[in-house]
Amino acid sequence: MPNAEALRRAIAPPLKGATAAQARFRDGRGSWQGASGEADIRTHRAMKGDERFRVGSVTKTFTAAVVLQLVHEGKLDLEGSVQRYLPGLLPAGWPEVKVKHLLDYTSGLPGGDTRGMPDGPDWDKGRYTTWDHRALVQSGLGKGSLFTPGSKQNYSNTDYNVLGLLIEKATGHRYEQELRHRVIEPLGLEDTYSVGDEQGIRGRHVHGYQAVKQADGSSRLVDVTEWDQSETWASGDLISTTADLERFMTALFSGRVVPQPQLEMMFTVPPVPAYDEENPASTKPATYTSGMQRSRLDDHTYLYGKTGSRYGYVDGFAATRNLSRSLVYAVNSTDAKGKATNPVVAAITQAALAPAKK
């Protein structure tokens, strides 16, 4: 298949800014999968492609799926408010925030105060800090609402952590339990789980590393595999593999996870502008759906998917609505929280999603 050789080159050593990479690609002509690098640089264990990793914000797609199942069952109402379901979470007088606003990031809720995880020399301070989910949401509310709910879109972990609280309120069960019962077990995702209060990764996994600058200007790789994930919780704490993510993506797009009409929300971008703190008058359109993000493959076709990152880990999935082309990747970036796109990630997405040469 035309993309296979380009994908092999994309993950061929040496990997710039990464210690390992893996990818899975499918289109109408066939499928390809590959892996390279080291899953553990201390032991030089080679990357095989079946290792578990932190998926980061790809968790949001799973969370959205559970919420929309609950909406379908009548246990949550899209028009229902946070104030109704979770009284006391938001201050008195706060603008009404509806479930639908949380799903598509139009709530206007500000981000939580995570000062325990700063940039700079103390970048890993708070690495083992455990956050209370309600307290984390409330920690940022002193900033006030960013905008009238429903009027703009602002990508936010807070929205999805509130959805985690809503899942628990509507079901009487822990978020992790509902995710396992409703999505993970029915799809047979044997390598996927929500970490809860665990700081490590169970089973066979790839280690994550962060390049840390030293006083002499050099840098060294620090193993950041162990990290408390309570700060991200329902917005980013899942562990998975590329095989499990591919299975989940295929089932989701095929209507086997979220029923209609709720599924359509996961492929619909609200007709509002993206929030721009520096330019409030910006009319740049929103790009996020409920749980995913929409981008263009070409002039006639959209891609839908989600990316994620935690220290040491960058990953993502993307597919056309009819699954005629799909990609799942995971790269162990050594600057996963940096602003620039990792060059290996860029090479993988270019190889898989650029128009094939005839």
UniProtKB/TrEMBL annotation:
InterPro entries referenced in this protein's UniProt entry, alphabetically: AmpC-like, Beta-lactam-related, Beta-lactam/transpept-like, Beta-lactam_class-A_AS
Highest taxon, organism lineage: Bacteria
Q: Where is the Beta-lactamase-related domain?
A: 11-345
Q: SUPFAM superfamilies from the xrefs?
A: beta-lactamase/transpeptidase-like (SSF56601)
Q: Which Pfam families match?
A: Beta-lactamase (PF00144)
Q: PANTHER family under this entry?
A: D-ALANYL-D-ALANINE CARBOXYPEPTIDASE, D-ALANYL-D-ALANINE-CARBOXYPEPTIDASE/ENDOPEPTIDASE AMPH
Record protein name field: Peptidase
